[in-house]
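[Solved] Which block belongs to which protein?

Original post:
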Amino acid sequence: MSQNPPDLRPDLAPRAVLPTDARPGQPRIGMVSLGCPKALVDSERILTRLRAEGYAISPDYAGAEAVIVNTCGFLDSAKAESLDAIGEALRENGRVIVTGCLGAEPDYITGAHPKVLAVTGPHQYEQVLDAVHAAVPPAPDPFVDLLPARGVSLTPRHFSYLKISEGCNHKCKFCIIPDMRGRLQSRPAKAVLREAEKLVEAGVRELLVISQDTSAYGTDWKDRAGAGSHIVDLARGLGSLGAWVRLHYVYPYPFVRDLVPLMADGLILSYLDVPFQHAHPDTLKRMARPAHAEKTLDRIAEWRGICPDITLRSTFIVGYPGETEAEFQTLLDWLDEAQLDRVGAFRYENVAGARSNALPDHVPEDVKEDRFARFMEKAQAISAAKLAAKVGTRLEVIVDSIDGDGATCRTKADAPEIDGNLFIDEGFQGLTPGDIVSVDVDEASEYDLWGRLVP
C-alpha cells in the first residue's frame, strides 16, 4: 500500500488503467496519456470512439500498430516530459500520433520529432481519428465489438472524471491554457447529466467534476438569465444520482456560497478544490488574479459557518517573479489563518508564451526551493494536526484497491491520487474496490489515516 502524496505536482492525473481485451486480428492502438484529469477524459473519449470503430487498445508498445501520445503543455517541465514520451514511443513502436495541449504547438513537436505521423491540438477528436484511420485502417466486426456501457475508462470502475466545460476566460499571466484550449465552452447540462447517469448506471460510485473553471460553468451561454447559478443547478442535479460528487477547480466567486448548503445537506461532498495560487495582494496583481486575500478568508469562514466539516483543497505558486520574502511570509501567515485541509504547490516555471516570463525580478532557483520546502513544511504540519483530530472518529470511506497487506481507501475529504488515503489492515478480506464502508479511525500521519472496519 502506497502512502500519499507520491508527488507534489497537483497537475497530474491518476495513472491510466488500459483495457487489454482484443479479438484475433483486431487492429490495436496504444495510448500514452499525460497531464491533468481533463486530458485523461480526452484520452477516454478518443479510445471510446476507436473502440466503437473496431479497434482494440494495446497496453504496451509491442502489441500496438500505432501509438497515440496525449501530451501536456502546462509547464516547461511538462513539455519536456511530453517530448520524452513521444521519443520513447517512436523508439519502441515507430508509428506515433501526437495530440493534446502541446499539440497546439506542432512546429515545436516536429522540430524535436520530425517522424511523428500527425500532430493535433487539444480535444480535436475527429483529427485524431482521421490520423489513426490513415495509419491503421479500421476492421470492425459489429457482432463481437461491443462497447462498454460507460465507454472506455482509464480509471478504476468505481470512480470517473466528468468534464463539464472546455477552455477558460481568465487571463492569468503564468498560464497559457486559454491559448491552447480557447475560451470557456460549457457543455449542455442535459448532456452532462446524461453522461453522469450512464456512469452511475455502469457502477461508478464517485463523480469527479472537472473543468478549467468549474464555478464559471454556464456563464458563457447567450441566455444569461440566472448566470452565476448554473453550477449550483448542475451540482443539484448530479447530487440526485446517488453517487459521491466531488467538485474540482472551483474559483472563489461570491456565488460559490450557494454550493455550500448542498454540501451541508449531503447532496454533494463537502469538498472544494479552490486554486487560490497566493495570498499577497501584490503577487496576485502580478499574476493578474483577483487580489482580495482578506475577502477570501472571510469567504472561507462563511463556508465553514454553513458547513463546518467542509474540506478545502488548494494549490499555490511559490517563487513567482517579484515575490519578496515579505510577500512569501504573508502567504505563510495566510496559510496559518486559513488552515486549509489539503495543499499542493508549484515552484514557478517560465512557460513559452506566458506573459509572466517578461516580468522583472525573477526569483533564483535556490530561493524557490527554500520557499517550497518551507511552504510544504507549514502545510504538512497543518495537515498532520487536522488528521490527528480525526483519530477516534467514525468516517465513511470508499475502497480503491486491495492487496495482501490491506485495503487502500479514501474518505470523503480525499480525491484520488492528490490527497491522502485511509488504510485498513485487518478484516479487509471481504472488501472489493468501490465498496463504501464505515471505519473507526485509530491512527494518523501527516497525510494518511488508518482505521478498523465497523462490524
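(Second protein starts here: sequence line, then its C-alpha cells.)
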Amino acid sequence: MASLPAAENWTDYPGGVDVDSGNLSAALGVGAAAGTAETEWLRLLVQGGNFSSSSELGLPEASPASSQPRANLTNQFVQPSWRIALWSLAYGVVVAVAVFGNLIVIWIILAHKRMRTVTNYFLVNLAFSDASMAAFNALVNFIYALHSEWYFGANYCRFQNFFPITAVFASIYSMTAIAVDRYMAIIDPLKPRLSATATRIVIGSIWILAFLLAFPQCLYSKIKVMPSRTLCYVQWPEGPKQHFTYHIIVIILVYCFPLLIMGITYTIVGITLWGGEIPGDTCDKYHEQLKAKRKVVKMMIIVVVTFAICWLPYHIYFILTAIYQQLNRWKYIQQVYLASFWLAMSSTMYNPIIYCCLNKRFRAGFKRAFRWCPFIQVSSYDELELKTTRFHPTRQSSLYTVTRMESVTVALDPSDTDNTKSTRKKRATPRDPSISGCSRGDSKSASTTSSFLSSPYTSVEEYS
C-alpha cells in the first residue's frame, strides 16, 4: 500500500531501499529476518550507513572487524541531479492532475442537480479519496524515498502511515459499491434504488471500516531521532513477521477481494447488456436506455481495470522484496521502488480523464470549468447537458405502469364474468405505436421488453 513509505521498509522489513548506503538495506534485511531488537538494528544502521558513532547512540561499540568494511563502502543509491529532476517532474504531474482533476469532478457533481445520482455520489467519494491521497501522501513519500530522512514530525509520521490505506480502501470500495449498484439496476430493475440516505450510510460505513483497517499503522508508528537524521517507521510488537502478515491481509482486503467482486458483477452485467437483443420487437426508448447503460458500464470497467493495473506492480514489489531479501542489495532497486510507487499513485489521476473522454456530461462540466482557456469553447449543447431538468420516471411513466398492470390483470383473472373480461380486454387494447414509440409484437415479447426497458426507479438520465 501507499502507506509503506520507504523508511518503514528500510527499518522493520526488507521491502524498501536506502538512498545513502548500499549496505544499509542489506543490514536491515538481515536484522529483520533474525527478528533483532531495536538496539540491534540501530547498530546495523550505524555500521551500514555510518550515520554516527555507536557511542553517540549509547550502543555497545562494534568490533574492529565489523567496522573495517566501512572504508570501502560506496553509495550505490545516490542519484544524479537530472534523474532527481525527472522523478520530481513525474510525481509533480501526478499530484497536480490528480488533485485538480478530482476536485473538478466533485464540483461537477455537487454543483449540478442533474448529476446527483447514486452512482455519482460514489464517484464523489472516489474522487475525494484519490485527491486526498495524491495531496497528502505522494510527494511526502517521494521526498522520503529520495533523502531517507523524515522532515515532517511525529504527528505527520502517524498520518503518513495511516491515511493511505484508508484512502485506498475508500476508493476501491466506492468502485465496488458502484458495481453492485449497476448490477442491481440492470439485472433487477424493478427493485428500488438506493436512496440518498442509504447512499450516505454506505459511504460512511466504508470510511469507518477503512479507519479500523488502517488504525494499527497509526498505533505503532514512531520516529527515531538520531544525530544525523530522523526516521519514520512502524514498529510492530511481534516484529517483521507480524508486519508482513498485516500487509498481506491489507492486500487481500483492498485489492484481491474487491476486484473479485467487481469482476463477477461486471461479467454478469456485460453478458446481460452485450449478450444479445431482447426477443420480439423493441421500442426506441429501450435502445436509447440500453446504449446509455452500456456507456456507463464500459466507463466503470475501464476505471476498475486501470486501478488494478496501476497497483499490481506495487503489491508484487512488496511481496517479492519481503520474501527474497537479497533483492534489497540490487543496484537498481531504488528505481524499481520509485517506478512502482509512481504507477500506483498515478491511478489517482486517470479517473477524471476517463470521465471526460467517455461521458458527455462530465465532458461538458470540464469545458465549463476550463472555459477561461482560449482554446476551450462551451457550446449551447454543453450548457443544456448540465442544466436541463432531469427526467423523473415515477412521474412520467404512468402510461407504462398502467399498461403493465392491466396486462397482468387480464392474464391472472380467469374467474371473472364474461362482461368483466371483455371490459378489461378493451381497456388493455394496445395503444397507437405513435404514442408509446414501440412497435407491436406478441404480448410475451412486449412484456419482457418492458420489464427490461424501464421501471419506476430508473431512467435514461441515470445512465447517460
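Accepted answer:
You had them paired correctly. Confirming on the second one: The mean pLDDT is 73.
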